[in-house]
Design a protein that fits this description.
Layout (H helix, E strand, L loop, with lengths): L1 E8 L5 H4 L9 H9 L6 E8 L3 E8 L2 H14 L6 H4 L1 E4 H13 L10 H15 L5 H20 L9 H12 L8 E4 L3 H12 L5 E5 L4 E4 L3 E4 L1 E2 L3 H4 L5 E4 L10 H10 L5 E5 L16 E4 L1 H5 L3 H47 L3 H9 L3 H7 L16 H14 L1
Parallel strand pairs: 5-6, 5-10, 6-9, 10-11, 11-12
Antiparallel strand pairs: 1-3, 1-4, 2-3, 7-8
């Protein structure tokens, strides 16, 4: 079995395209069902990283055919119609591992070196471990990627003078308003991006803040400040007194419509209104940009402010890539050996647990356990390919441990 990856990102597709291939918590049960039925024995585990700028699906897979079938199953389930060859990328083995480490380190990000992606990677890893989709062999790779990302960020200047979505949002305010901190601002959503923006606003001295969310939520911010959410079903009333609307919420369809914004503009007597849509899929209808007094910024618009940062960090990104290649090469052999032994242990456990006592006794007393396994005719045995790579004493020790536990 081998590490596999298929994904889509800002490098291969624009925002509108990426919206058609987003994996969220509504899809976990479907993926679990795939692993337990159609791909049982073919795919051991999966890990998905889904952020504003990318959706990547990693799997520990038996072969390329299973990997392609799994990709097609997800692709069709999401109703995606993008060009697979142009808008998606695929990697296997160490190339997939290097890409995983590059993403976690921030050098594949639209804003090179941004810190959010590392937190998002760790959070996604923990989530997929908890729900039982990332297990055994694949979890070794995700854990190793986190360690390597930490080393990269510690040994390069990739995250010096940090730029984030939150800081870029503040840059937009400075471009539009003479006194940004005097404006009334509402943020919608309680996820990592929305919480990060709220924290940045508080740290920058903004005070006229409102926070809306689907469910009741209290967010602790800097300077011993906390905000309790206002109900989203009162959104039309909440927006009336706002100068800036910032939204980052998970939704299949835009919920900030052109009609709602026109109503708000009429109430405001056509004062300028800023709408910053950080959602993927988008939270605001694109037609809003046609309203004369409204400034609508999408995630891609906001990130375009990072071009200066991109040029400043390109040399550090090159250094980081070299370091990742070296660290991945060093870790890959060790990971392969650990994964190989885990696969063998798992296969032997299944075999021994269903075996007769005579079979177990013969295994324990044999000086050549591989030969003994091959000589047993009354038990259907499917020996792992790597069994001949294990020293006899190590194999006997493994068998003894499994039988003692059984």
């Amino acid at each position: 079995m081998e590490l596999k990856l298929f994904g889509i990102s800002h490098k291969t597709a624009n925002l509108e395209m990426r919206e058609s291939f987003v994996i969220n918590d509504d899809h976990y049960s479907y993926m679990m069902n795939l692993l337990e039925t159609k791909f049982a024995g073919e795919i051991d585990s999966i890990f998905v990283l889904s952020t504003c700028n990318r959706t990547e699906v990693y799997s520990y897979c038996r072969d390329e055919d299973s990997h392609q079938q799994f990709f097609q199953s997800i692709y069709k389930y999401l109703g995606c119609e993008l060009d697979i060859t142009k808008n998606f990328y695929q990697f296997s083995g160490i190339a997939a591992f290097k890409h995983m480490c590059s993403v976690a380190s921030g050098i594949e990000s639209r804003i090179i070196g941004e810190k959010e992606i590392f937190g998002q990677f760790k959070k996604a890893n923990e989530l997929y471990l908890n729900i039982g989709l990332n297990k055994r062999m694949l979890s070794m790779y995700t854990d190793a990627a986190i360690k390597i990302a930490k080393q990269v960020r510690s040994n390069t200047k990739i995250d010096h003078n940090p730029v984030s979505i939150s800081s870029l949002v503040l840059n937009v305010f400075d471009e539009i308003f003479e006194n940004p901190s005097d404006q009334n601002i509402i943020t919608i959503g309680a996820g990592e991006v929305a919480s990060g923006v709220l924290n940045s606003l508080v740290n920058a001295g903004f005070q006229n803040l409102t926070f809306a969310n689907r469910t009741p939520k209290k967010i602790s911010l800097g300077n011993n400040i906390s905000l309790s959410s206002r109900p989203l079903n009162k959104l039309d009333q909440l927006l009336l007194g706002q100068d800036i609307i910032i939204s980052s919420i998970s939704t299949d369809l835009p919920f900030i419509g052109k009609g709602l914004i026109e109503k708000i503009c009429a109430y405001r007597k056509n004062k300028p209104l800023v709408v910053i849509d950080l959602g993927v899929p988008r939270n605001a209808e694109s037609l809003i940009k046609n309203i004369e007094q409204v400034y609508l910024f999408s995630l891609e618009d906001i990130e375009s402010f990072s071009n200066e940062n991109l040029r400043a960090r390109e040399s550090e990104a090159k250094r980081a890539k070299v370091l990742i290649n070296d660290l991945c090469s060093l870790n890959d052999e060790g990971l392969k050996e650990k994964v190989s032994r885990k696969e063998l242990y798992s296969a032997l456990t299944k075999l021994i647990q269903g075996a007769t006592e005579d079979f177990k006794t013969k295994l324990l007393n044999s000086n050549d356990p591989v030969k003994a396994l091959n000589e047993i005719n009354d038990v259907e045995i499917k020996l792992p390919k790597n069994i001949n790579d294990i020293e006899s004493y190590a194999l006997r020790s493994m068998i003894r441990e499994i039988i003692d536990v059984a």
